[in-house]
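Follow-up to my post from last week.
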Amino acid sequence: MTGTDPILEVSGVSIRFGGVAALSDVSFAVLPGEFFAIIGPNGAGKSTLFNCMSGLFPPTGSIRLNGTELVGRKPWQIATLGLGRTFQNLGLFDSLSVIDNLMVGRHVRIRGGVLDGALRAGPARRAERAARLRCHAIIDLLDLEAYCHEDVATLPYGIRKRVELGKALAMDPTVLLLDEPVGGMNREETEHLVHYITSAQDELGLTIVLIEHDVGMVMDVADRVLALDFGKVIGLGLPDEIRHNPAVIEAYLGVDVAAVSAPSPSPGAEERDEQEREAMT
Amino acid sequence: MSDFIQLVVSGIALGCLYALVALSFVIVLRATGVFNIVPGGVVLFSAYMVYNFHVTWGLPFGVAVVLTVVLCAAAVLLLDRVLFRPITNHGSGHGTFFAVLLVGIGMLTVAEGLVVAIWGSQPLSMNDPWGLSKITIGSVSLTDRDLSVIAITLILLGAFWYLLQRTRVGVSMRAVASDPEAARVQGINPAVISAVAWICATVAAVLAGVMLGTAVGGGINPTIDQISFLALPALILGGAGSIGGCVLGGIVLGVLQSLAEGYAPASFGSGFGQVVPWVVMIGILVIRPSGLLGSRAMRRA
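User reply:
Got it. Predicted complex:
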């Protein structure tokens, strides 16, 4: 935590789908340089929250990035303002090579119109070359050199996850939203990716907001943790505070949060047993 | 033998027209994810508009073509904005696909009616800008028009290939075709991409319409938009979604059609050649549904 004014401010965000309140009055603030994690069981509204931030869903309430209101803006405008994101199920462009996947994100940083790009006129050509250099730097950072010119469709899952991270980094975001970046990975792959995320954060001075099921991993790396359940904030604080927050423990089956590392199923009512909860706390 | 070569060359020229129309479909399909038959209407209108500007008003042929491209592009962008984008914004999947297809077919019918209302139903003849002169090589005589069609098509295809493969807009278009949602959060405005695609499609369709309209003997008539249906087999044969596939599919079908018209016994009837593309398409769909150069991009559509 390096600053005092929040770089990302979410206040009173709500959204309903049909009769279901997917998010109810969610508020929190992320400080510049922070590694901020959002946890919660399946269906808690974590990805919905990301979709609201990146403009894919229209919530009520306010989301501010560096003081600029994001609610009501289009996704590509929000991207240009410096909010990058990855998708849980990967948002890769399968028919493009790894470098072109990164270049897509880079294009928003190239000034000049469509025709400049098509004709490759002087300034556009220089900008294109600078963009390519920048993408190669990110590829180096993520150790993806060997796959640079391969179509992403042909790559193994773990590598694709890393390309997804690189694609978001290529946009030079000030705040990076990571949606379950280590989902579906084993312990060793998870450690590798966490290493890439933290070194990217150090090198590029990023603020990171991460959604994760893998609570153990979150507790190790996050500065602060927000816990959601049924679209509501049930806890916000340092990892240790969240670890001992009764509401969070209840949401996670009454199991000691620190011990949970595998994805937890959504708890049923009968599992939220008084006895069980007492036993665990 | 010289008959054979002449038939093959005019078949290639015909195939180039199929390829241009198929290309206009593919570009829009890739950028918007939805098949749209409206470029067929552009083929029809552009032939009449060039006739009107060039023959009736006496504007130079080149000016008439450029003016037609500009007007058609404006009309098509307007249609996309007020008609097709609202439909596709409401949802995706089969319902949207059919809605757009049916609206497009309806508009083709309206376009044919409008053309008859404005220009009448009699075939019109454009002062053939390529002339009817023939180039004779040995015993083979080729019309200027066939050679122009082939040359213009190849130049345009080269330009489109460069645009899609080598430029920023092209990479963005391919990104949108691959994952529209991810492309949006990477800072790509889909409205810009679909506008660029519609303009490219319009250029291809206008050139196809003009070249059809100047066809030796054929001329302009209110049903030349039917080529948009004959271009569909080319799309399928080549493997929808790729530029190379359109060209290959179009040319193969054009040559087959031309040879069938040249060699089929008279008892088959005069329209036999036009049946051939469909027979080939049905065969391809059964044997090799992804087409000769199948592309993954089609999966989304």
